[in-house]
TrEMBL record, chains A, B:
<feature type="signal peptide">
    <location>
        <begin position="1"/>
        <end position="18"/>
    </location>
</feature>
<feature type="domain" description="Peptidase M28">
    <location>
        <begin position="259"/>
        <end position="446"/>
    </location>
</feature>
<dbReference type="Pfam" id="PF04389">
    <property type="entry name" value="Peptidase_M28"/>
</dbReference>
<keyword id="KW-0333">Golgi apparatus</keyword>
<keyword id="KW-0256">Endoplasmic reticulum</keyword>
<dbReference type="GO" id="GO:0005576">
    <property type="term" value="C:extracellular region"/>
</dbReference>
<keyword id="KW-0645">Protease</keyword>
<keyword id="KW-0458">Lysosome</keyword>
<dbReference type="GO" id="GO:0046872">
    <property type="term" value="F:metal ion binding"/>
</dbReference>
<keyword id="KW-0482">Metalloprotease</keyword>
<keyword id="KW-0865">Zymogen</keyword>
<dbReference type="InterPro" id="IPR039866">
    <property type="entry name" value="CPQ"/>
</dbReference>
<dbReference type="GO" id="GO:0005764">
    <property type="term" value="C:lysosome"/>
</dbReference>
<dbReference type="InterPro" id="IPR007484">
    <property type="entry name" value="Peptidase_M28"/>
</dbReference>
<dbReference type="GO" id="GO:0006508">
    <property type="term" value="P:proteolysis"/>
</dbReference>
<keyword id="KW-0378">Hydrolase</keyword>
<keyword id="KW-0862">Zinc</keyword>
Length: 456, 456
């Protein structure tokens, strides 16, 4: 009888608690959709500040703006965390054309990859060798590659449902293509943009020369998908087609920048930290609305939504706006280093860096026990059409915080449109939908609430 | 032992069958994403033909074009089904302004609602009474309303997650507002556009006068959400603000049009019909890409995808492109009438009329036994992130086919952006994403395949 009674009491408590969790989520979602701040913050970040390349004036303006906005929220602490970041500048707009063996030319759309060196002054013209990837190039060997421009033309696979997976299948040619081609004596590298759509916009992104001697470093650029198709066709028709490109980008000395951090200090376990963040820097071609303005403003709104909903966290909840995710990850490394020095116990880190589209759920880096806990929360998210709770990659900025005992997660929005915009001039505020952005912020705030309340 | 053996055999067969179903879905999705036709069909329908108001020349061009494309697919039968449809024409572009009591004016963006009469020649100017809905207007009574323009300003509720529900909560003022206001002696009706966003585009849509005598019929128009806010603010500041509008729309005699139908005849049960469809007509302000060009081309591609995947249906599968969903439903009524006359047994009807966005699942009108069957198919759809299988409303065009013994369903795409475009000049091809459209077509084809194979 006693056991039945305590079971009964347990069930009543569990039910009341589930009830109040459901109500709390409803409050959070309603707040976000009727009174959210994320969209107006993004409007300012995108339209008044714009692209925020690490070390640029606009990156510094974004630091100042977001700090000021966090200051206005009445958090317990807001501060800047200094970090040295690389400063790469694009220079003049790049210029490129194809030249047939008869001498006729046709311009194409390119952009320098982030971290690339410039072409020789006045540009570079050479014969082109098209390959589908680094292995194919290596198999062709030095003789075939030397003195040429290597054209990496492997396309993202459209039949892969989750587009980030298709991206992962092609990103090596952009990141390491120039390094590997340089070793074989190539003079330049052109990479098909990582875009599932056929259009005229080149997509930039980071690349590396590794430890390659300066003499072997060659310039590399991305070409739009339409122009990749054009170049490939031209090479089929006329294998002596030459490629010309001119770019004046260069790497300057590192400069000081900042992570922006805000905190609501926990009432019961102030040294247990839950962080939520995105990255403040972006590429320079668009205004960085999806990558990662969206993650920045959603993360800021998580703390505001919890405050507005009247919730008093037991643990310390921080928003961290990381600097330099795109071409260095210096902000994330600095944040993790300082956290370690101070002995801060980061139990959970949540990143939003997959665009501001309709949220579908989260990927978690965690143990099975935590996944069982998540399973129990699924029904709370069902009214909001959040259904994806899987083990998977969380994100670059929270990765340095991961230990064997904590949990990290990444928000997973619908990914179908993301690579239409990623790192291109089309990453613009007008392509972010207010409701989709707000639903993402509410979904993040809901998960943070549950983890603060029940722990990991 | 015998029972165990037969259970074992059953389990093996079930497993093999699940395996092959998973493979079949993979084939369908891959076909759609790598070799789909839906997007190029939509390109033509939207950019070469454009808005397709019932009875218009472009509606007839859409009939001819889709028939021709279906003819080219090698189906067993393709035909046109004649149907008389209403013909309403917008006339000149509408014009409207607010006039303060001091006489200063400010133009606003409006469009006539479909089916509305014109204003008197030269336009109509009157004092305005703002209400949140029909009941509030009725409560104010004849004295308050008579001689005025009634301004229905109830906004869609942003906190409702499924936007069609928010739409349903406001559509009555657009559909019946003028009829009810006419009874109380109002001279015109202005309705806040059914749009969750604040922007400058008025959204049209159908309205009715019911059996109201012609003398009581008054013109009605939609106003953009930004201008609804402006009008409301002006009325607060200056309750003598007047509204002027001029529109020259009119209802002409009915004209003949057509449903477009294509069929793969079933190999085992040719008189059991499975249909999949969308509506070929659209409003005239945009090009009707989301409403319902998307549903049209997805439905066409369902039959092509099944053919290309090498599947031979047991039952007869039809694509039906319905004419006149927007302002009459005549095509759907005609199709159901002819089906009944011929004694065709329609076991399952699937409609796509909620935009060409990322598919999330289906709503079903069915019994519990069918929902149990659907439950068993859920895992097949999981790799494609399709998770929503609920009882709910299927769609207007398949509604006349519903009986106690059959099943109807509606594709449910992500709904967050839909009302940014619905019935407005912003319903344009550029707002449809190729992959999202193709995922929808594959999701529909997969369900049709399973239902053909296993029945309802």
């Amino acid at each position: 009888m006693k056991r039945i009674l305590s079971l009964l009491i347990f069930l009543i408590i569990a039910n009341v608690s589930a009830q109040s969790d459901a109500e709390m989520l409803k409050t959070i979602y309603t707040q976000s959709l009727t009174n959210g701040k994320s969209y107006s913050w993004l409007d300012y970040l995108s339209n008044q500040i714009g692209g925020r390349l690490s070390g640029s004036l606009s990156a510094e303006r974004a630091v100042a703006y977001t700090k000021e906005e966090l200051d206005s929220l009445g958090l317990d602490k807001v501060w800047l965390q200094p970090v040295m970041v690389p400063k790469w500048v694009r220079g003049n707009k790049e210029y490129a054309f194809l030249e047939s063996s008869s001498g006729s030319t046709s311009t194409v759309n390119i952009c320098a990859l982030g971290g690339s060196i410039a072409t020789p002054i006045g540009g570079l013209k050479a014969a082109v060798i098209e390959v589908q990837g680094i292995e194919e190039m290596k198999a062709l060997g030095k003789e075939a590659v030397s003195g040429k421009i290597v054209f990496f033309n492997r396309a993202m696979q459209p039949e892969i449902i989750q587009t980030f997976e298709a991206y992962g299948g092609c990103a090596d040619q952009r990141y390491s293509g120039a390094m590997e081609a340089g070793k074989l004596g190539a003079v330049g590298v052109i990479v098909r943009s990582l875009n599932l759509r056929l259009d005229d916009f080149p997509h930039t992104g980071s690349m590396t020369y590794g430890n390659l001697p300066i003499s072997q470093r060659i310039p590399s650029a991305a070409i739009s998908t339409n122009d990749a198709e054009k170049l490939s066709t031209m090479l089929t028709l006329d294998k002596n087609t030459k490629f010309f490109f001119n770019q004046t980008c260069r790497q300057l000395d590192d400069v000081e920048s900042h992570n922006v951090i805000g905190e609501i200090t926990g009432s019961e376990f102030p040294n247990e930290y839950i962080i939520v963040g995105g990255h403040l820097d972006s590429w320079d071609l668009g205004d960085g609305s999806h990558d990662d303005g969206a993650g920045v403003v959603q993360s800021m709104d998580v703390l505001r939504l919890l405050k507005e909903s009247g919730y008093k966290p037991k643990r310390s909840i921080r928003v961290v706006l990381f600097m330099n995710e795109e071409n260095g990850l210096r902000g994330a490394l600095k944040y993790a280093e300082v956290a370690k020095q101070k002995g801060e116990n980061h139990i959970f880190s949540l990143e939003s860096d997959s665009g501001g589209f309709t949220p579908r759920g989260f990927d978690f880096e965690c143990d099975d026990a935590f996944m069982t806990k998540i399973e129990g929360w699924k029904n709370l998210f069902k009214p909001y059409l959040i259904h994806h709770f899987e083990k998977g990659y969380s994100g670059a900025d929270v990765a340095p915080l991961k230990t064997a005992n904590n949990v990290s997660a990444g928000l997973r929005p619908d990914s179908q449109r993301y690579f239409d915009h990623h790192h291109a001039a089309t990453d613009l505020f007008e392509h972010v939908n207010k409701r989709e952005l707000e639903l993402g912020a509410a979904t993040m705030a809901s998960l943070v609430y549950l983890i603060d309340k029940y722990g990991i």
